Amino acid sequence: MFNQRIKIKQLLSGTATGIEVVVMGWVRTFRNNQFIALNDGSTNANIQIVASLGEFDDAILKRITTGASLKIIGTVVESLGKGQTVEVKATSIEILGDSDAEKYPLQPKKHSLEFLREKAHLRFRTNTFGSVFRIRHSLAFTVHQFFNDRGFLYLHTPIITSSDAEGAGEMFRVTTLPLEGAPKNDAGEIDFTQDFFGKSTNLTVSGQLEGELGAMAFSDIYTFGPTFRAENSNTTRHLAEFWMIEPEVAFNDLEDNMNLAEDFIKHLIAYVMKNNIDDLQFLDTRLAEEEKQLPTEKRSGLGLIEKLKFVVENGFERITYTEAIEIISSGEHERYLVEQHFKKPVIVTGYPAAIKAFYMRMNDGCEPGKETVAAMDILAPGIGEIVGGSQREERLEKLEARMNAMHIPLQEMSYYLDTRRFGSVPHAGFGLGFERMVQFVTGMTNIRDVIPFARTPKNCEY
Ligand code: 4AD
Ligand code: MG
To answer: Partner of 36 for a Cys bridge, out of 9, 12, 49, 232, CB 3.0 to 4.6 A?
Structure first.
């Protein structure tokens, strides 16, 4: 067995000295031909390895370069250096993999995020991305904890689908038909009956519709998977492939839905504050330094951890769409609403039906032409929309009327309408954009920096 090592995080959390350990990792720096800062990704903190002068061959020492991988056997000793309690006095140094110092793209200095985006395969080895992706992992893990603890069932909704859940037509087509000379039908259109699935198919934009089918049996379900949008938005908030968490709950109304979403977001933040405080502290400092470069009026005021604590400890603001418009129309930009006016997440309800998806429940008693739906979006400071959700239209006739008005083919959605035909119940759900949540928790301004390998218009590396 080769892998009998102690992880650096565990090593640094102990104070026992005099014991022999094996550590493995990648060299961050090598100073004075004596001190190796070794990192294995378990924490941003490096273990200092001391290669005492005269004890190792020059041939070995020359190969200890930034990026090289090492196996160290040594003794844990008390550290005299600042910021660490223990270090390892090496008795054996084995080079597992060399790293040509001339060619290795990551120098022991600060690189720009733009530069690192081009080197996404190596950026995991930096402190910033180490912290971001350990936090991303923790968030993903505790998503399942949150729902499992509440008796939700994790439903794996399909990635390839024949329906457009959002009705927005922003889908990536899935086909095995040839691009040239695709078979045509009598009407001269592409004949998808000859395609792999015998019909036109796409990558899913949302697992919601299938989620609703599950909720009509299990009561409480959630999905957590990749979703795809072929929208040509080159912004710091949009990806073509992103992950979404979508709970769907039978017997929940809009208020239950808002409460669930607020509890969920608070749980995610509280979990990271408890379990990833080192990484949060690193990102907090990083953000504070970055903000120093900004003009005073553009600074966020609160530090990252302060902001997260504030969100966990205070209720989200809840306002209607009409109220939101009034505040914004006093001359301010939409971001003003959350960032300056309320300074905390805001849940906006009661959107005009005209700008929302077909499945949202029509509010009763609206003036003709001024219909609103039981939608709720959550807007977060610095992020904008982080959650989109609604109570669903459970009344068959109203749903059919809405779908007809929006030219959604009832025939193809017959399976969905069955939920309203056979034991329909009030129900509600929402989608939390996972990367936007990771952005909020880590303070990263560009969404490309919180997903390992970003897919955006004109960019699909790796
Ligand atoms: O508001 P959206 O489009 O809602 C739905 O898809 C519903 N079916 C959800 C539901 O009710 N079950 O998307 C939900 C969230 C947004 O609030 C946003 O956080 C995120 O998904 N999102 C994106 N994140 C990154 N890149 C994109 N292109 C995104 N589009 C939406
Ligand atoms: Mg939305």
So the answer is: 49
pLDDT for res 221: 98
Tokens 């990749």 identify what position? 226
Quote the CA–CA distance of 422 and 442 in Å, as a whole number: 44
Ligand 1, pocket residues at CB < 6 Å: 165-166, 206, 208, 229, 238-239, 242, 244, 246, 385-389, 429-431, 433, 435-436
Instruction: Give residues with Cβ within 8 angstroms of 44, minimum separation 6.
Output: 127, 130, 131, 278, 279, 282
Report which DSSP code applies to 339. I
Beta strand residue intervals within 300-433, DSSP E: 317-320, 346-352, 372-380, 384-391, 427-433
- The Å distance, Cα 81 to ligand 2 centre, comes to 51
- Compare 396 and 169 and report the one with higher pLDDT: 396
Specify the residue with its C-alpha closest to ligand 1, atom 18: 433
Q: What is the pLDDT of residues 332-377, one digit of tens each?
A: 777 788 888 888 999 999 999 999 999 999 999 999 989 999 999 9
CA of 388 to the centre of ligand 1 (A): 6
| Pairing mode of beta strands 20-31, 346-352 | unpaired
- Rounded distance from Cα 101 to ligand 1 centre (Å): 43
Residues, Cβ < 5 Å to ion ligand 2: 388
Q: 151's torsion region: left (phi>0), alpha (psi -120 to 50) or beta?
A: left
* pLDDT higher than threshold 90 for residue 392: yes
Bridge partner residues of 95 (DSSP): 70
pLDDT above 90 (res 80): no
- The CB density around residue 172, as the number of other CB atoms within 10 Å, is 13
Task: For residues 440 and 457, give the distance between their C-alpha atoms in angstroms, rounded to a whole number.
Answer: 23
| Angle of the 434-442 helix axis to the 254-275 helix axis, nearest 10 | 50
Q: Is the pLDDT of residue 444 over 90?
A: yes
Q: How far is the CA of 229 from the centre of ligand 1 (A)?
A: 9
pLDDT computed for residue 259 by the predictor: 98
Residue 342 has φ and ψ, to the nearest 5°, of -100, -30
Q: Where are the alpha helices (DSSP H) in 293-413?
A: 304-313, 321-328, 334-336, 396-405
**Going by CATH, does the domain composed of 8-109 fall within 2.40.50.140?**
yes
- CATH 2.40.50.140 residue window(s) in the chain: 8-109
- The pTM assigned to this predicted structure is 0.96
Best CATH choice for the domain 132-170+205-449 from the list 3.40.50.300, 3.30.450.20, 3.40.50.40, 3.30.930.10: 3.30.930.10
